Amino acid sequence: MGKFFVFLFVTLSLINAYGDTKETDYFSGGMKAYKNNNYKKALEFFKKAYDIGNSKGCYELGAMYQNGEGVGKNYQKAIEFYSKACELGEGKGCTNLGYMYDFGLGVKEDDQKAAELYSKGCKLGDGLGCYNSGVMYQNGKGVGKNYQKAVELYSRACKLGKGGGCTNLGYMYEDGLGVEKNYQKAIELYSKGCRLGNGLGCNNLGVMYAKGKGVIKDDREAVKLYLKACSLGNALGCSNLAYRFYNGQTVERDFETAIFLWERACELGYKVSCQKVKEVENELKKRPSFFGLKVGFTTEEEFKKIVKDKGWKIEKAGHRIVKDDISNPNVTGYVVSGIPLEKISSAYFWFFKGKLMKIEYRLSESKDKSTFYTYYDLLRNKYGNPDSYTKPHLADGKAVWNIGGVEIKLFSPWVSEITYLTYTDLYLSSLADKSDREIYKEETKKEAKPLEGI
Question: 154, 181 in Cβ contact below 8 A?
Fold first, then answer.
């Protein structure tokens, strides 16, 4: 997915005024009232500051009229005050006036006029004006496309403390737009953008760590950065973190958290995430569920309660044998009898760290493979045609379905009186296999204890 989003912002200035005592008193009084959410009082002070030619008072009045704070939203009035602020040398006024022309708010949309005003705001020292001007040059909007000019403007915005400028400059270095491609420089700039509170900078830095671009691959650091990006309101950060929870990468798999994060990304305007929420919810609904058991979700304690409530019986329980006499305490298996399934001879339930990982039914088979065909028809009617199928004729019979992250396999060895029906959560199964390898490696490297008397 793309990593470069352009955001144009309108903000209220929270800096001290300069000028004579009266200007300072009016402006500082307005800012104090504004910060206390007393918009009516703030308007009174800002209007007094405006009346005596205070540029910052003009700008703040424009922002309040644009945002409808303490007064009805009025784009024409906002334009009037931004224009006056710009004339008086307030860079923020020029930048926000450019924004009005850029998006046609209270005035006819005019890209060229917007570009001119952003440029003027930048020249007057407004970092946001430099950033927005850079966006215009990068996209060729209102001006000719010029990557070198965009790099120059992003660099200035970054130096003026605009995180978005650092981030976009980092993107230019990552992709070699207007500058020579340089991953280390991109990482440095993404990092600065992130520190300055730009969520996209945190996300892009996370992607660099996830892919090992210009830095040693570090998934844990990527997750931390995606989380910070999401907390700063960046949709891509929320979406990338959601994928981590959905796939169980570096974090424990958690479908609810993944859905929550995709919903958040959707709210922040990332439409791909809106569709992903629907897809995952539908996928989870399709997950196999029977006798109240759900592979990948049911806990060991819930399983025992279901066994008791249904009158089944646990015949045997223990940990999975890895090899020789080495067992894996993270994988627990139960042999259960009394399950009302046709032709069933035994049933095995496997758990990885307390979550139902696999169900294995062993079914009595006849020479004509009638059990295989009976269950194949039942499964096909429920889940549709399998992803793969081999007819049990002079070969092992096999049918495989993948439903919502669960592999359903019907397997009948050609020379066997047993047909196997298994439901496996592929994610938990992969973790269990990895755990097997780690435990075996740990156990076999232990030094043998010397025998007494030798």
Answer: no
